[in-house]
Amino acid sequence: MDNVLFVVNMQNFFVGKKRNKDKFSYNAEDLIAKINKRIAAYQPEEVFYIVSVGKGLFKGLAPKPETMDAELSRDIKVKSKNIYQKSKPDFFSNDALTDFIRARNVKEVEFVGIDTSTEFGASALTANEFCMVIMAPDKQAKFREKIRKTRITYKHDMDE
Question: Does this model's pTM top 0.90?
Answer without folding.
Answer: no
